[in-house]
Amino acid sequence: MAVRRTLFTGTVYTIDMSSIKELHERYPKTLFPTIWQHIESLIQNNQLVSHIEVHREIKATTNPKDKLLVWSNKNKKLFQNIDPCQNSKIPQIQSEYNKGEWSNKMNRPGPWADPYLIAMAICEGATIITQESKTKANRIPPIGNKLGVKSVNLLEFFEELKIKL
Asked: Residue by residue, what is the 3-state secondary structure of the chain?
C-alpha cells in the first residue's frame, strides 16, 4: 500500500537506469526536444525522480565522458537519497525476491538500485518507469506489482503524459 507523503506534489514517476539509458540512446535531445522539455519540467517540479543508487549504477557502468553520465551529473536533483520510509520497506521487498537472486544482486561488486526504486515508489505513491520485463521473475515490474506499485516503460510513460513524438 502506498504511503503518500507531501515531499512531492502531483503525479510522481521514479525512473530506472534502463529507461534513462533508453531515453538517451533512442530519443536524443537534438531529435526529440519536446520529450526533453517535458523531462526537464518534471524534474524541476519534483514529479520525476530517481534514486541515488541509480546514479551509482550509471557511474559504475559508463565511461566518464559518456553523455548519460554527463547528463546525470548535471541533473543531480533527480537522484534522491534513501530515507527512513524506504529503509522500512526493504525487508518487505526482499521477501518478494527469490532468495538466491537477492543474495547474488546484493553481494555483487556494483550497485543494485531495483529494491530502492521500489521502496521509493511505495513511499511516494509513484509509478516506476523501467524497460525491464513485466513477465520475468525478480524484475522491477513483477516485484513492484506484488507490492501495489505500477510500472510503465518509456512509451507508456509518453502515452500517460500525452507526449507527442
From this structure: CCCCCCCCCCCCEEECHHHHHHHHHHCCCCCCHHHHHHHHHHHHCCCEEEEHHHHHHHHHHCCCCCHHHHHHHHCHHHEECCCHHHHHHHHHHHHHCCHHHHHHHHHCCCCCCHHHHHHHHHHHCCEEECCCCCCCCCCHHHHHHHCCCCEECHHHHHHHHCCCC
**CATH number listed for the domain at residues 13-161:** 3.40.50.1010
Distance CA(59)–CA(68), nearest Å, equals 9
Name the residue ranges covered by the structural domains of the chain: 13-161
Residue 162: HSE in the Cβ half-sphere, 13 Å Cα cutoff: 0
> How much is the pTM?
0.92
The answer to whether residue 8 scores a pLDDT higher than 80 is no
Query: Among candidates 45, 57, 44, which has minimal Cα distance to 113?
Result: 57
**Per-residue model confidence as pLDDT tens digits over 139-162:** 999 999 999 999 999 999 999 999
Quick one: pLDDT at residue 6?
43
Q: Quick one: cell of 86? A: 524506504
106: Cα within 13 Å, side-chain hemisphere: 14
Phi, then psi, of 78 in degrees rounded to 5: -65, -35
Residues 6+ apart with CB under 8 A from 33: none
